[in-house]
Design brief:
Strands 3-4-6-5 form a four-stranded mixed beta sheet, sandwiched between helices. A two-stranded antiparallel ribbon has the order 1-2. With 138 residues, the chain is α+β, with helices and mostly antiparallel strands. The chain contains five helices and six strands. It starts with 5 loop residues before the first strand and ends with a strand. Helix 3 packs parallel to helix 5.
């Protein structure tokens, strides 16, 4: 295997991560994800992906229940509690990493695919950017 190339953290000014280094491919992936998320940022989208907490910290956004989107992280009966939260939302965009969702459906992840199944069932697909699907719930 060849030498891996490193770049500093993410493509934008990275609040709280100034001394972090990633593989070049991770840097580029973060750059692409950030561009997609930035496009929808004025709508305050819910990010359903492993990258969400990092993105929110970099952009000084509050951390929420969707940021560590794994089974068990929402407490007792957590999946139903999260679905109840989604039911109360309106005019909401969801940006979902479909690779992470599909890995969970294959049994290779703790990513909570049941909640994503629910979001998909009550929302309309707006567009896809590679592995990121954008859904809108009225």
């Amino acid at each position: 295997m060849g030498v891996r190339e490193y770049k500093p953290s993410f493509y934008k000014d990275t609040n709280h991560f100034k001394y972090r280094y990633n593989y070049k491919v991770d840097y580029e992936d973060g750059e692409n994800l950030s561009k997609i998320i930035d496009k929808y940022s004025k709508y305050d989208p819910v990010l359903i992906m492993y990258y969400s907490m990092t993105y929110n910290i970099i952009n000084n956004k509050d951390i929420n229940y969707f940021d560590v989107f794994l089974y068990g992280n929402h407490g007792y009966n957590g999946t139903n509690k999260m679905i109840s939260r989604i039911d109360k939302m309106s005019n909401q965009y969801f940006l979902i990493n479909m690779d992470e969702y599909n890995a969970a459906r294959s049994g290779y992840s703790q990513f909570n695919d049941e909640i994503v199944d629910y979001i998909i069932s009550v929302s309309d697909l707006v567009e896809s950017y590679g592995r990121i699907n954008v859904y809108y719930k009225e």
